[in-house]
Predict the structure.
Amino acid sequence: MTTARVRGIYATAVTELLNDDGLEVVQASGPIRERFDASFATAPADGSIETSRDRRGVEVSGDPEAVDEVASILESLAIDTFRWDPAASRGAVFDAEVLEADGGGGALVDLGDGRRGYLNYDDVDDYVDSGNRYRVQVQEPTPPWDDDEPRVAPTLEAAGGLCTLSRDRSGVSADVRGERADELVGMTDLLSVEVPDGWGLRWHRAAADADLAAMETALEDAVDRVRELEDALAGAPDELGQPRRLVAPERTVWLWFGRESRFALDDVRREVESTMPGHHRTKAADRAASTAVDFAEAVCGSTGGDPDGSFPFEAVSRQFGPLEGDRLEIGHGKPDGRLISLGYGDVTDWDPEGTITLERSMRGGGTYDALGVPKEDGDVAVTKFREGRWWYPTTYEDADGAAKGTYVNVCTPLELFPDEIRYVDLYVDVIRTPDGTVEVVDRDELEAAAADGLVSESLAEKATGVAEAVERALSK
């Protein structure tokens, strides 16, 4: 049976989903143990599910087959769930060359084939300069929608679910204190598996609750990974070559949850625990909001636990934003995982039903996409965003307030976070030119994305239907 470790704001819902599909969740956190009427083993995990730093999705890393099994379950969650494989998986080893080492806390490195990484200066013993080459391992992968590069370090590690073997360590240690740490170190001598020469063993905190059989399995897994790394690197020359990937013993998959995905996760979580409408939507917005949701549900048994209730946009927005006067970024996601910023604008109007108006000052030069109207200094883009809507209109006006055309972007359901408007663009759009002509544009781009598998058939049909409905509305 595939085992998985789950952490983060989606943990309860993901645990329920995995349990329903016959996977075993291990190393469960305290809150998860309390919520489920089941026992959870403290055993090595084949895969690990962690919430991304921006709380918009999850990382799934571990054994390639386990990762694929978990990701297949999660990607079918809702129509606006997206799945991507990053260029650099957790644990992958590369020969790298420093591209830029101009101050700051680290250097940008070339990993080959267009891949980049970030090398922290503190992880290197000597001075780092452009052109230096290192053999590095990915310590922290990053999602494709994040501007940061994956963090790499000039070390080798092999994890076994409850422990890690490292070339930078010696002996046996534990990530706990006091007598329990001494016990873990002492219990290692009772295991039939030996730590490989040149590697140090570090037991994770979860190992403190594990039995000898689980510890032995974990160490066996870590040793197997060490052998895999050593075998793969045995043929690599000692002198570092051009940037390239040498071995990738683990696989990493990123899943991005759209608004409908978050509400689907609410439904799953509600089967286990009292869950307010918009639980995951609110938690994804802000860390303080996440704490507030936990408090409200704990004290009141869920404020608004009616599953048919609507997302309390007004309450969340008034407490955490966005509100009139705020400045927001438009996060224009693409189905291939990239995140493009369309710039910042000022919220000039807000209503409690979930609609905001954003105004942006435009610079001259070029023309507006599809409209064919020149961009001029003094132009203003006025955009209306409504929480949960599959489209949003932008009207371009000149310095005197005269309309220069309207561009309607079709996208996954909008989420209005405190500092960012977020969605994934679905290629097809609708325009209305200054003379009143209305037209659906970029159908071919949507068709190509569907053919390439970037957009599912159901999502492509939905996008086309939305565009045609908007076209009819604008033509009246």
